[in-house]
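Entry 14. Structure prediction run on the chain below.
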Amino acid sequence: MARLRGRLTGTVKQTDPAADPYTPHSGDRRWSSLHVDLRLDYRVATNRLDATATVTARAAETLDRVVLDLHGLSVDRVDVDGVRAKKVAVGTHKTTVTPATPIAAGAEFAVHVRYRGTPRPVRSPWGTLGWEELADGLIVASQPVGAPSWFPCNDRPDDKATYRIELTCEAGYEVVANGALLGRERTGRGTRWTYAVTEPMATYLATVQIGRYRTTALRGAAVPVAVHHPADLTTAVRTDFGRVPEMIALFVDRFGPYPFAAYGVVVTDDELEIPLEAHGLAVFGRNHVDGAHGTDRLIAHELAHQWFGNSVTLGRWRDIWLHEGFACYAEWLWSEHSGSASADELARAHHAGLLTQPQDLVVADPGARDMFDDRVYKRGALALHALRRTIGDAAFTTGLRDVTTRHRHGTVTTPDVVAAFAAAAGTGTDAVRLVLGPWIDEPGVPDLP
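Output returned:
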Protein backbone atom coordinates (compact mmCIF):
# COMPACT_ATOMS: atom_id res chain seq x y z
CA MET A 1 0.00 0.00 0.00
CA ALA A 2 1.31 3.43 -0.77
CA ARG A 3 0.58 6.28 1.60
CA LEU A 4 -1.85 8.24 -0.55
CA ARG A 5 -4.21 7.15 -3.28
CA GLY A 6 -5.76 9.32 -5.96
CA ARG A 7 -7.98 8.60 -8.91
CA LEU A 8 -6.70 8.19 -12.41
CA THR A 9 -8.07 10.85 -14.72
CA GLY A 10 -7.94 10.20 -18.43
CA THR A 11 -6.05 7.39 -20.10
CA VAL A 12 -2.44 6.31 -19.79
CA LYS A 13 -0.64 6.60 -23.12
CA GLN A 14 1.88 3.88 -23.80
CA THR A 15 4.98 5.00 -25.69
CA ASP A 16 7.17 1.87 -25.63
CA PRO A 17 5.68 -1.51 -26.60
CA ALA A 18 8.02 -3.21 -24.10
CA ALA A 19 6.96 -0.92 -21.24
CA ASP A 20 4.49 -1.87 -18.54
CA PRO A 21 1.16 -0.50 -19.82
CA TYR A 22 0.21 0.57 -16.28
CA THR A 23 3.35 2.71 -15.89
CA PRO A 24 4.48 3.25 -19.50
CA HIS A 25 6.81 6.13 -18.75
CA SER A 26 8.80 4.31 -16.05
CA GLY A 27 11.87 2.16 -16.49
CA ASP A 28 13.93 0.96 -19.42
CA ARG A 29 14.02 -2.74 -20.35
CA ARG A 30 17.25 -2.35 -22.30
CA TRP A 31 19.28 -2.64 -19.11
CA SER A 32 18.96 -3.94 -15.55
CA SER A 33 20.47 -2.84 -12.25
CA LEU A 34 22.76 -5.07 -10.23
CA HIS A 35 23.74 -2.79 -7.33
CA VAL A 36 22.85 0.75 -6.27
CA ASP A 37 25.12 2.80 -3.99
CA LEU A 38 23.49 5.97 -2.60
CA ARG A 39 25.37 8.62 -0.61
CA LEU A 40 22.96 11.25 0.62
CA ASP A 41 23.71 14.45 2.51
CA TYR A 42 20.36 15.78 3.70
CA ARG A 43 19.29 18.79 5.74
CA VAL A 44 15.97 18.10 7.45
CA ALA A 45 15.44 21.75 8.33
CA THR A 46 15.60 22.94 4.70
CA ASN A 47 14.77 19.75 2.77
CA ARG A 48 18.06 20.11 0.92
CA LEU A 49 19.67 17.05 -0.69
CA ASP A 50 23.19 16.75 -2.11
CA ALA A 51 23.87 13.24 -3.29
CA THR A 52 25.68 10.76 -5.47
CA ALA A 53 24.34 7.53 -6.89
CA THR A 54 26.38 4.78 -8.49
CA VAL A 55 24.24 2.29 -10.42
CA THR A 56 26.05 -0.87 -11.47
CA ALA A 57 24.09 -2.50 -14.27
CA ARG A 58 24.10 -4.90 -17.22
CA ALA A 59 23.09 -4.04 -20.77
CA ALA A 60 20.47 -6.26 -22.40
CA GLU A 61 21.38 -4.80 -25.79
CA THR A 62 23.96 -2.40 -27.17
CA LEU A 63 23.38 1.00 -25.57
CA ASP A 64 24.27 4.30 -27.15
CA ARG A 65 22.49 6.00 -24.27
CA VAL A 66 21.32 5.13 -20.75
CA VAL A 67 17.97 6.51 -19.63
CA LEU A 68 17.48 7.00 -15.88
CA ASP A 69 14.28 7.85 -14.04
CA LEU A 70 14.91 10.98 -11.92
CA HIS A 71 12.28 13.52 -10.91
CA GLY A 72 12.81 17.24 -10.35
CA LEU A 73 16.45 17.19 -9.23
CA SER A 74 19.49 18.86 -10.80
CA VAL A 75 22.30 16.74 -12.22
CA ASP A 76 25.82 18.16 -11.90
CA ARG A 77 27.84 15.40 -13.51
CA VAL A 78 27.56 11.86 -14.85
CA ASP A 79 30.39 9.39 -15.45
CA VAL A 80 30.06 6.01 -17.15
CA ASP A 81 32.73 3.50 -16.15
CA GLY A 82 34.82 6.34 -14.77
CA VAL A 83 34.68 8.45 -17.94
CA ARG A 84 32.68 11.65 -18.10
CA ALA A 85 29.53 11.22 -20.18
CA LYS A 86 29.59 12.66 -23.68
CA LYS A 87 26.19 14.25 -23.13
CA VAL A 88 23.62 14.51 -20.34
CA ALA A 89 20.05 15.64 -21.07
CA VAL A 90 18.01 16.33 -17.94
CA GLY A 91 14.22 16.44 -18.22
CA THR A 92 11.52 16.71 -15.58
CA HIS A 93 11.25 12.95 -15.15
CA LYS A 94 14.14 11.45 -17.13
CA THR A 95 17.89 11.90 -17.41
CA THR A 96 19.40 10.61 -20.65
CA VAL A 97 23.10 9.84 -20.55
CA THR A 98 25.19 9.40 -23.68
CA PRO A 99 28.40 7.54 -22.78
CA ALA A 100 31.71 8.35 -24.42
CA THR A 101 31.50 5.01 -26.23
CA PRO A 102 28.51 2.69 -26.66
CA ILE A 103 28.02 -0.08 -24.10
CA ALA A 104 28.08 -3.58 -25.60
CA ALA A 105 25.18 -5.98 -25.18
CA GLY A 106 25.75 -8.16 -22.11
CA ALA A 107 28.39 -5.84 -20.67
CA GLU A 108 28.41 -4.75 -17.05
CA PHE A 109 28.76 -0.99 -16.58
CA ALA A 110 28.55 1.64 -13.85
CA VAL A 111 26.84 5.04 -14.01
CA HIS A 112 27.89 7.56 -11.37
CA VAL A 113 25.53 10.52 -10.94
CA ARG A 114 26.17 13.61 -8.81
CA TYR A 115 22.88 15.40 -8.17
CA ARG A 116 21.18 17.83 -5.80
CA GLY A 117 18.06 19.81 -5.08
CA THR A 118 14.90 20.00 -3.01
CA PRO A 119 13.22 16.61 -3.30
CA ARG A 120 9.47 16.56 -3.63
CA PRO A 121 6.91 13.82 -4.20
CA VAL A 122 6.01 12.66 -7.68
CA ARG A 123 2.47 13.65 -8.61
CA SER A 124 0.88 10.53 -10.06
CA PRO A 125 -2.52 9.10 -10.92
CA TRP A 126 -2.41 7.33 -7.54
CA GLY A 127 -1.57 10.36 -5.41
CA THR A 128 1.73 11.92 -4.36
CA LEU A 129 4.49 9.33 -4.09
CA GLY A 130 8.07 9.10 -2.90
CA TRP A 131 10.05 11.61 -0.84
CA GLU A 132 7.74 13.58 1.45
CA GLU A 133 8.48 15.85 4.39
CA LEU A 134 6.83 15.22 7.74
CA ALA A 135 6.28 17.87 10.41
CA ASP A 136 9.76 17.03 11.72
CA GLY A 137 11.36 14.39 9.59
CA LEU A 138 10.88 12.41 6.42
CA ILE A 139 8.89 9.55 4.96
CA VAL A 140 9.52 7.78 1.65
CA ALA A 141 6.62 5.75 0.20
CA SER A 142 7.16 5.09 -3.50
CA GLN A 143 4.69 2.47 -4.73
CA PRO A 144 4.46 2.35 -7.69
CA VAL A 145 6.46 5.19 -9.34
CA GLY A 146 7.89 7.40 -6.56
CA ALA A 147 11.49 6.12 -6.36
CA PRO A 148 12.82 8.73 -8.85
CA SER A 149 11.83 11.46 -6.38
CA TRP A 150 15.09 10.80 -4.51
CA PHE A 151 17.51 8.76 -6.62
CA PRO A 152 18.23 7.94 -10.28
CA CYS A 153 17.03 4.46 -11.10
CA ASN A 154 15.49 2.05 -13.56
CA ASP A 155 12.03 2.29 -12.01
CA ARG A 156 10.54 -1.11 -12.81
CA PRO A 157 9.27 -3.58 -10.18
CA ASP A 158 11.33 -6.36 -11.77
CA ASP A 159 14.54 -4.30 -11.65
CA LYS A 160 15.77 -5.76 -8.37
CA ALA A 161 19.26 -4.98 -7.08
CA THR A 162 21.30 -4.94 -3.90
CA TYR A 163 21.76 -1.53 -2.24
CA ARG A 164 24.03 0.46 0.00
CA ILE A 165 22.32 3.53 1.48
CA GLU A 166 24.38 6.13 3.35
CA LEU A 167 22.57 9.20 4.70
CA THR A 168 23.99 12.09 6.72
CA CYS A 169 21.62 14.52 8.48
CA GLU A 170 21.47 16.69 11.58
CA ALA A 171 22.13 15.08 14.95
CA GLY A 172 19.09 14.24 17.07
CA TYR A 173 17.29 12.24 14.40
CA GLU A 174 17.09 8.52 13.89
CA VAL A 175 17.48 7.37 10.31
CA VAL A 176 15.92 4.05 9.32
CA ALA A 177 16.50 2.51 5.89
CA ASN A 178 16.27 -0.91 4.29
CA GLY A 179 18.67 -3.65 5.25
CA ALA A 180 21.20 -4.01 8.04
CA LEU A 181 22.64 -1.01 9.86
CA LEU A 182 26.38 -1.13 9.15
CA GLY A 183 27.32 1.89 11.18
CA ARG A 184 26.42 5.22 12.72
CA GLU A 185 29.06 7.89 13.24
CA ARG A 186 29.24 11.54 14.12
CA THR A 187 30.51 13.89 11.42
CA GLY A 188 31.03 17.62 11.15
CA ARG A 189 27.57 17.91 9.59
CA GLY A 190 25.66 15.66 11.99
CA THR A 191 25.33 11.86 11.99
CA ARG A 192 26.07 9.47 9.13
CA TRP A 193 23.96 6.30 8.94
CA THR A 194 24.91 3.43 6.63
CA TYR A 195 22.67 0.52 5.65
CA ALA A 196 23.21 -2.45 3.31
CA VAL A 197 20.60 -4.53 1.49
CA THR A 198 22.06 -7.87 0.44
CA GLU A 199 18.90 -9.31 -1.14
CA PRO A 200 17.63 -8.02 -4.51
CA MET A 201 15.19 -5.16 -3.85
CA ALA A 202 12.74 -3.42 -6.19
CA THR A 203 13.16 0.33 -6.61
CA TYR A 204 9.72 1.21 -5.20
CA LEU A 205 10.54 -0.64 -1.96
CA ALA A 206 13.70 1.38 -1.25
CA THR A 207 13.12 3.83 1.59
CA VAL A 208 14.60 6.12 4.21
CA GLN A 209 12.64 7.27 7.25
CA ILE A 210 13.82 10.14 9.49
CA GLY A 211 12.34 11.17 12.81
CA ARG A 212 12.98 11.75 16.50
CA TYR A 213 12.38 8.14 17.41
CA ARG A 214 13.02 5.75 20.26
CA THR A 215 13.64 2.07 19.44
CA THR A 216 11.83 -0.79 21.15
CA ALA A 217 13.03 -4.35 20.54
CA LEU A 218 10.37 -7.08 20.52
CA ARG A 219 11.43 -10.42 21.99
CA GLY A 220 10.48 -13.94 21.00
CA ALA A 221 10.51 -13.71 17.20
CA ALA A 222 12.45 -15.94 14.83
CA VAL A 223 14.32 -12.83 13.63
CA PRO A 224 15.18 -9.53 15.34
CA VAL A 225 12.20 -7.14 15.41
CA ALA A 226 12.54 -3.44 16.24
CA VAL A 227 9.92 -0.69 16.38
CA HIS A 228 11.05 2.93 15.93
CA HIS A 229 8.52 5.35 17.40
CA PRO A 230 7.91 8.66 19.19
CA ALA A 231 8.82 8.46 22.86
CA ASP A 232 5.29 9.15 24.09
CA LEU A 233 3.98 6.04 22.29
CA THR A 234 6.29 3.56 24.01
CA THR A 235 3.64 1.83 26.10
CA ALA A 236 1.04 1.73 23.33
CA VAL A 237 3.61 0.44 20.82
CA ARG A 238 4.59 -2.42 23.12
CA THR A 239 0.95 -3.41 23.30
CA ASP A 240 -0.09 -2.97 19.69
CA PHE A 241 3.01 -4.54 18.12
CA GLY A 242 3.53 -7.08 20.89
CA ARG A 243 1.93 -9.83 18.78
CA VAL A 244 4.29 -9.39 15.84
CA PRO A 245 6.54 -12.28 16.98
CA GLU A 246 3.48 -14.56 17.07
CA MET A 247 2.39 -13.28 13.64
CA ILE A 248 5.84 -14.04 12.26
CA ALA A 249 5.65 -17.57 13.67
CA LEU A 250 2.25 -18.12 12.04
CA PHE A 251 3.36 -16.80 8.66
CA VAL A 252 6.60 -18.82 8.79
CA ASP A 253 4.45 -21.90 9.30
CA ARG A 254 2.12 -21.03 6.39
CA PHE A 255 4.40 -19.16 3.98
CA GLY A 256 7.87 -20.52 4.72
CA PRO A 257 10.96 -18.96 6.29
CA TYR A 258 10.95 -15.21 6.88
CA PRO A 259 12.80 -13.85 3.81
CA PHE A 260 15.03 -11.22 5.45
CA ALA A 261 17.49 -11.01 8.33
CA ALA A 262 15.27 -8.73 10.47
CA TYR A 263 11.96 -6.88 10.53
CA GLY A 264 11.58 -3.21 11.33
CA VAL A 265 8.55 -1.02 11.99
CA VAL A 266 8.50 2.78 11.93
CA VAL A 267 5.68 4.71 13.62
CA THR A 268 5.80 8.32 12.45
CA ASP A 269 4.84 11.21 14.70
CA ASP A 270 2.46 12.33 11.92
CA GLU A 271 -0.83 10.71 11.08
CA LEU A 272 -0.83 8.68 7.86
CA GLU A 273 -3.78 7.78 5.68
CA ILE A 274 -2.75 4.12 5.49
CA PRO A 275 0.31 2.05 6.48
CA LEU A 276 2.82 1.05 3.85
CA GLU A 277 5.34 -1.69 3.23
CA ALA A 278 9.01 -1.49 2.31
CA HIS A 279 11.72 -4.11 1.93
CA GLY A 280 12.22 -5.46 5.46
CA LEU A 281 10.16 -2.62 6.94
CA ALA A 282 6.64 -1.35 7.51
CA VAL A 283 5.57 2.22 8.28
CA PHE A 284 2.57 3.31 10.33
CA GLY A 285 1.29 6.67 11.54
CA ARG A 286 0.64 7.56 15.16
CA ASN A 287 -3.07 7.28 14.34
CA HIS A 288 -2.55 3.54 13.86
CA VAL A 289 -1.45 3.11 17.48
CA ASP A 290 -4.16 3.02 20.14
CA GLY A 291 -2.73 0.66 22.76
CA ALA A 292 -5.74 -1.63 22.32
CA HIS A 293 -4.79 -3.78 19.29
CA GLY A 294 -7.06 -1.73 17.07
CA THR A 295 -4.87 -2.21 14.02
CA ASP A 296 -3.90 -5.89 14.27
CA ARG A 297 -5.40 -6.46 10.82
CA LEU A 298 -3.16 -3.82 9.26
CA ILE A 299 -0.10 -5.02 11.16
CA ALA A 300 -0.64 -8.55 9.83
CA HIS A 301 -1.20 -7.22 6.30
CA GLU A 302 2.04 -5.23 6.16
CA LEU A 303 4.03 -8.06 7.71
CA ALA A 304 2.71 -10.51 5.09
CA HIS A 305 4.04 -8.25 2.36
CA GLN A 306 7.57 -9.25 3.39
CA TRP A 307 6.83 -12.59 1.71
CA PHE A 308 4.32 -11.49 -0.94
CA GLY A 309 5.45 -8.25 -2.54
CA ASN A 310 8.89 -7.63 -1.07
CA SER A 311 10.64 -10.98 -1.50
CA VAL A 312 8.32 -12.40 -4.17
CA THR A 313 7.58 -9.41 -6.38
CA LEU A 314 5.35 -8.95 -9.40
CA GLY A 315 7.07 -8.23 -12.70
CA ARG A 316 4.16 -6.24 -14.15
CA TRP A 317 1.70 -4.09 -12.22
CA ARG A 318 -1.32 -5.91 -13.68
CA ASP A 319 -0.46 -8.73 -11.24
CA ILE A 320 -0.95 -6.57 -8.13
CA TRP A 321 -3.40 -9.15 -6.76
CA LEU A 322 -0.36 -11.37 -6.12
CA HIS A 323 0.69 -8.81 -3.50
CA GLU A 324 -2.56 -7.46 -2.12
CA GLY A 325 -4.80 -10.52 -2.38
CA PHE A 326 -2.23 -12.61 -0.52
CA ALA A 327 -1.60 -9.95 2.16
CA CYS A 328 -5.35 -9.53 2.63
CA TYR A 329 -5.74 -13.29 3.05
CA ALA A 330 -2.96 -13.20 5.63
CA GLU A 331 -5.20 -10.88 7.69
CA TRP A 332 -7.84 -13.61 7.66
CA LEU A 333 -5.32 -16.29 8.60
CA TRP A 334 -4.20 -14.20 11.57
CA SER A 335 -7.79 -13.55 12.64
CA GLU A 336 -8.50 -17.26 12.52
CA HIS A 337 -5.32 -18.14 14.39
CA SER A 338 -5.86 -15.53 17.12
CA GLY A 339 -9.36 -16.72 17.97
CA SER A 340 -11.32 -13.99 16.19
CA ALA A 341 -13.46 -14.54 13.11
CA SER A 342 -12.45 -17.51 10.97
CA ALA A 343 -11.25 -17.10 7.41
CA ASP A 344 -14.50 -18.66 6.27
CA GLU A 345 -16.59 -16.16 8.25
CA LEU A 346 -14.57 -13.25 6.88
CA ALA A 347 -14.77 -14.62 3.35
CA ARG A 348 -18.55 -14.83 3.50
CA ALA A 349 -18.88 -11.35 4.98
CA HIS A 350 -16.68 -9.77 2.31
CA HIS A 351 -18.37 -11.81 -0.40
CA ALA A 352 -21.72 -10.35 0.62
CA GLY A 353 -20.23 -6.85 0.54
CA LEU A 354 -18.79 -7.35 -2.94
CA LEU A 355 -22.20 -8.32 -4.28
CA THR A 356 -23.39 -4.79 -3.50
CA GLN A 357 -20.53 -3.16 -5.46
CA PRO A 358 -20.01 -2.74 -9.22
CA GLN A 359 -18.96 -5.98 -10.88
CA ASP A 360 -16.87 -4.46 -13.63
CA LEU A 361 -13.32 -5.25 -12.49
CA VAL A 362 -11.05 -8.11 -13.60
CA VAL A 363 -8.71 -8.84 -10.70
CA ALA A 364 -5.90 -10.30 -12.83
CA ASP A 365 -5.83 -7.16 -14.98
CA PRO A 366 -7.77 -4.39 -13.24
CA GLY A 367 -6.30 -1.55 -15.29
CA ALA A 368 -4.12 1.27 -14.04
CA ARG A 369 -7.08 3.25 -12.72
CA ASP A 370 -8.23 0.45 -10.41
CA MET A 371 -4.89 -1.12 -9.51
CA PHE A 372 -5.40 -0.32 -5.82
CA ASP A 373 -9.16 -0.72 -5.73
CA ASP A 374 -10.25 -2.57 -2.58
CA ARG A 375 -12.03 -5.11 -4.76
CA VAL A 376 -8.62 -6.32 -6.00
CA TYR A 377 -7.64 -6.99 -2.37
CA LYS A 378 -10.84 -8.68 -1.28
CA ARG A 379 -11.55 -10.66 -4.44
CA GLY A 380 -7.92 -11.76 -4.56
CA ALA A 381 -8.24 -13.05 -1.01
CA LEU A 382 -11.54 -14.73 -1.84
CA ALA A 383 -9.91 -16.46 -4.81
CA LEU A 384 -7.33 -17.93 -2.41
CA HIS A 385 -10.01 -18.95 0.06
CA ALA A 386 -11.99 -20.69 -2.68
CA LEU A 387 -8.85 -22.57 -3.67
CA ARG A 388 -8.11 -23.51 -0.06
CA ARG A 389 -11.63 -24.86 0.34
CA THR A 390 -11.24 -26.88 -2.85
CA ILE A 391 -7.77 -28.44 -2.46
CA GLY A 392 -7.61 -28.59 1.34
CA ASP A 393 -5.43 -26.91 3.96
CA ALA A 394 -2.36 -29.14 3.52
CA ALA A 395 -2.08 -28.66 -0.25
CA PHE A 396 -2.91 -24.96 0.07
CA THR A 397 -0.10 -24.37 2.57
CA THR A 398 2.31 -26.42 0.46
CA GLY A 399 1.43 -24.27 -2.54
CA LEU A 400 2.02 -21.05 -0.61
CA ARG A 401 5.40 -22.25 0.62
CA ASP A 402 6.38 -23.39 -2.88
CA VAL A 403 5.68 -19.91 -4.29
CA THR A 404 7.85 -18.19 -1.68
CA THR A 405 10.65 -20.76 -2.06
CA ARG A 406 10.81 -20.95 -5.86
CA HIS A 407 10.55 -17.20 -6.37
CA ARG A 408 12.40 -15.99 -3.27
CA HIS A 409 13.90 -12.53 -3.96
CA GLY A 410 12.67 -12.76 -7.55
CA THR A 411 9.58 -12.04 -9.59
CA VAL A 412 6.36 -13.98 -9.97
CA THR A 413 3.39 -14.23 -12.34
CA THR A 414 -0.10 -15.64 -12.02
CA PRO A 415 0.86 -18.76 -14.06
CA ASP A 416 3.71 -19.35 -11.59
CA VAL A 417 1.22 -19.37 -8.72
CA VAL A 418 -1.20 -21.61 -10.58
CA ALA A 419 1.60 -24.09 -11.28
CA ALA A 420 2.65 -24.13 -7.62
CA PHE A 421 -0.84 -24.90 -6.35
CA ALA A 422 -1.40 -27.50 -9.09
CA ALA A 423 1.78 -29.34 -8.07
CA ALA A 424 0.82 -29.13 -4.39
CA ALA A 425 -2.65 -30.53 -5.08
CA GLY A 426 -1.36 -33.22 -7.44
CA THR A 427 -3.54 -31.98 -10.26
CA GLY A 428 -3.20 -30.13 -13.54
CA THR A 429 -3.05 -26.38 -13.91
CA ASP A 430 -6.43 -26.43 -15.66
CA ALA A 431 -8.07 -27.66 -12.46
CA VAL A 432 -6.58 -24.78 -10.45
CA ARG A 433 -7.55 -22.30 -13.16
CA LEU A 434 -11.09 -23.64 -12.99
CA VAL A 435 -11.24 -22.49 -9.36
CA LEU A 436 -9.30 -19.25 -9.61
CA GLY A 437 -10.51 -18.17 -13.06
CA PRO A 438 -14.00 -16.95 -12.12
CA TRP A 439 -12.49 -14.83 -9.31
CA ILE A 440 -9.57 -13.25 -11.13
CA ASP A 441 -10.30 -13.48 -14.87
CA GLU A 442 -13.97 -12.48 -14.96
CA PRO A 443 -15.74 -9.34 -13.73
CA GLY A 444 -18.58 -11.06 -11.92
CA VAL A 445 -18.50 -12.24 -8.30
CA PRO A 446 -18.92 -16.05 -8.28
CA ASP A 447 -20.41 -18.13 -5.48
CA LEU A 448 -18.10 -19.36 -2.75
CA PRO A 449 -17.54 -23.14 -2.72
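The first strand starts at residue 31 and ends at 43.
Filed with the rest of this week's runs.
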